[in-house]
Structure formats: C-alpha cells, structure tokens
Write a structure and sequence with these properties.
There is one protein chain. This protein is α/β, with parallel strands linked by helices and about 260 residues long. It has a single domain, classed as 3-Layer(aba) Sandwich (Rossmann fold), CATH 3.40.50. Helix content is about 45%, strand content about 15%. A seven-stranded parallel β-sheet has the order 3-2-1-4-5-6-7, with helices on both faces. The termini are far apart.
Length: about 260
C-alpha cells in the first residue's frame, strides 16, 4: 500500500484509530471515505474536514454493507484500498454463559463477519484495480491474551490468520494484504481506555504507523515498537512472563 495517491474506504472510522488514520492519510494526498453507523458523527467529521467523504454503514448488518459499498463505488469508482477498521471490545466473565454469550456473538459478528462481508462486497472490484490493497486490523491481543476480553482476543486471532491465508490465495491478483497490529492505544474502544497510562497515545501511534507505511509499503504487517512485546512473546520464548505482565499492568484485568 503506497502512502499516497489512493482512494481509501475505512468503515468504522468516526473516532479513535480509524478517524485519526483516515485524517492522516487524507493529509498525505489520498482520497478518503470514512464510514460509520451514526450519521450525526459522520456529518460532524465531514464539516470539520473538507474533502473527506463519508458514508453511513453498520458492518454488523449485511444489507447495510451492500448499500454502503454501492454508494462508495458509485461516487469513487477508482477505490483501491479497503481498511477494515470497525470493531468492538468488551470485558466478559465466562464463568456463566448468561454473562458472555450475547457479547461473544456481537463481537464475532462485528470483528470477524464484518470484515469478511466487506471483502465479499469489494473483492471483485478491487481485483480490477492495478494497485489494490486490503488492510485488516488485528491486535497485539491476537498473540498474547488479556484475560478479561476472550472474545475480542479470539476475533483478532481469527483476523490475523484470515489475512495470512488470503495473502496466499490472492497472490495471483493485484490485491495486496496488509495487517495493522495495534497495541493498547488511548481511544474510546473500552471505558477508561482514553486515559489508560499504559496505553500508547493515539497521535504517537498514528505518526509511527504512517512512517512504517512510508518506509515499507509492501510490509505484510505494520508493527509499531510498542506492540512487539505482545506480537513476538512466543517467538522470544517468554510468552508466560508476557501474559503475566500484561494481565498485571492492564487496569481492565485488575478491575475484573
């Protein structure tokens, strides 16, 4: 994925990493279409950032995905990059099924089926573009788990392996597969996340991600330094120690 000159659709981008990344990419000379469920937030973003296009989309709703993709392609037939950003993260207690089953279903639908349905809606179009890319968004928790978010961890591990597999399967096409692997970042993904002193400041994360894309646009994974502790814990042979450290220092684990 080149750092500029793209037309990029980012569902799940009215706040947090998605919005910040979209704005940074727009500043680098890309046409950016931000997607989200709430029209009022989309209108606010469009008013505050002229040149940014928006589309209403609920990635948990297959019909909404189809409608939004049709709108995007109608307005931007040169679309060549999808960044599948939408996701939810919830604390869960798996001691009793009544406390986690609904949350798990919501998480899998949003975090796994959502990207899959987006791929299904866009893959034929992207294959017509000479320099196309799909960017998935996993997490450091796909590799080293946080005890209170089992469904989230599992969903991001699924996204990692899906990305690895699709890279192999689509190697005979013009569509490149990249995986963005965030650490904990100060966003409203979960209550308290925005002020978590152990999380990476959002602006620092975006600055480093943009540098990574610019330095190696063909990278399979975009890994900021802060996430490498989790990403490579098994490779280094200190997985158990890293799991213990993560679950000791993260306030969500302590407060569970």
């Amino acid at each position: 994925m080149q750092i500029s000159g793209n037309t990029i659709f980012i569902p799940g981008s009215t706040s947090g990493i998605g919005l910040a990344l979209g704005l940074a990419l727009h500043e680098r000379g890309n046409t950016v279409i931000l997607g989200g469920r709430r029209k009022e937030l989309l209108d606010e973003v469009a008013a505050a950032h002229p040149g940014i296009d928006t589309v209403q989309i609920d990635t948990a709703d297959p019909s909404s995905i189809q409608t939004a993709v049709a709108q995007v392609l109608d307005r931007h037939p040169d679309l060549n990059v999808l960044i599948a950003m939408a996701g939810i993260m919830r604390a869960e207690d798996w001691h009793q099924p009544a406390t986690f089953l609904a949350s798990t279903e919501d998480t899998i639908v949003t975090n796994v089926l959502g990207p899959i349905r987006l791929f299904g809606a866009l893959i034929e179009h992207l294959r017509t573009r000479p320099d196309a890319a799909i960017v998935t968004v996993s997490s450091g928790l796909a590799f080293t788990p946080l005890s209170v978010t089992p469904s989230y961890n599992a969903s991001k591990a699924a996204i990692h392996m899906l990305t690895e597999t699709l890279r192999l399967q689509l190697a005979d096409t013009t569509v490149a597969l990249h995986e963005l692997v965030p650490p904990s970042v100060r966003t409203p993904l979960m209550p308290g996340h925005e002020t978590n002193e152990h999380a990476m400041p959002l602006d620092e994360f975006i600055t480093e991600v943009m540098s990574l894309i610019e330095a190696d646009p063909d990278a399979h994974e975009f890994l900021v330094d802060r996430v490498k502790l989790l990403r490579y814990s098994e490779v280094r042979g200190d997985y158990d120690q890293t799991v213990a450290l993560l679950n000791h220092t993260d306030p969500h684990a302590r407060n569970a």
